[in-house]
Amino acid sequence: MFISKNAETSIKHQLLVSPEMPELPELEVIANRLAERLTGCEIQNVEVHDHIVIHGKTAGEFEEGSIGETFHSFRPDGKFIIMEMDEHDLVVNPMLTGRFRLLDKHRTPTKTDMFSIRTEKGTLWYYDRKRMGRAYLVLKGDYSDVAGFSGRGPSALDPSLTLEIFKERIRRHRGQIKNVLRNQRFVKGIGNAYADEILLYAGILPFRRRSTLSDEETVKLYKAMRTVLSRVLEIISHRDLNEFGTEKRDFLMVHNRGGGMCPLCGGRVSEITANRFKTNYCQTCQK
Ligand SMILES: [Zn+2]
Predict the structure, then answer these.
(1) Considering the domain boundaries, does residue 194 fall inside one?
(2) pLDDT, the chain, mean
(3) 120 lies in some domain
(4) 124 Cβ partners below 8 Å, 6+ apart?
(5) Ligand 1 centroid to 269 CA: how many Å?
(6) Domain of 252: which CATH number?
(7) How far is the CA of 220 from the centre of ligand 1 (A)?
(8) Which structural domain range is residue 61 located in?
(9) Do 230 and 157 contact (CB within 8 A), yes or no?
(10) What is the band of 17 on the pLDDT scale with cuts at 50, 70, 90?
(11) Distance, CA 21 to ligand 1 centroid (Å)?
């Protein structure tokens, strides 16, 4: 069969796209989908299929602690999802490849299924190809055992994070601006992909030192952070949970678009990989 050169490149490109962490917009939508379906549902059964993702408890404690409780709310918190129940909260950090799926009928677990939670409105499956995610069953509101939870800044979309507070917070952080944006202690919810998107929109090169940013650039950065994250949230807000994945970020402007065309100037998107993290930027639009 004849495959055109372009089609071939595009197939190869799709295969090479490595999994990336869900960030604030994705976690917000995941929490909304779970809430729509499971709020008010009693947990009939919990089964741990692979204990490697369960932290702070044995698989048995994890199961017994949640069976019989009712789901009250689902909310994103930075890169975590918090599921509030009666006495306990279930906190999940999906890391790179942790994903959720809601199925009407129970089925046999596959080898990527880590745990499943059965309710009268279907079963919630948490699956994780790389088994890197972390799940904690904690006493209500006690997140002291959750790794990387305490000491984080406000959410990047928190309405109380005003420009003044943003400016005040950013002064405390040094180093390259992309790393500052990704630092959850500065603001929470931004990872590798949206940091690139925000910096393109702000017109700032990712390698610039935070200390070299002018006051005007800091304002641009704040506005870009809000605009990019809200826009992504709007685009993905109606997506179905089972069709969800960071691999389906077909709306990105610059991230994962190395060699492609910058949507702002029509120039070529540059790419650099360091510590397994890919950074994409536009040499024309970003200074
Ligand atoms: Zn450009």
Answers:
(1) yes
(2) 92
(3) yes
(4) 34, 38, 100, 101, 102, 116, 117
(5) 7
(6) 1.10.8.50
(7) 16
(8) 24-139
(9) yes
(10) low
(11) 25
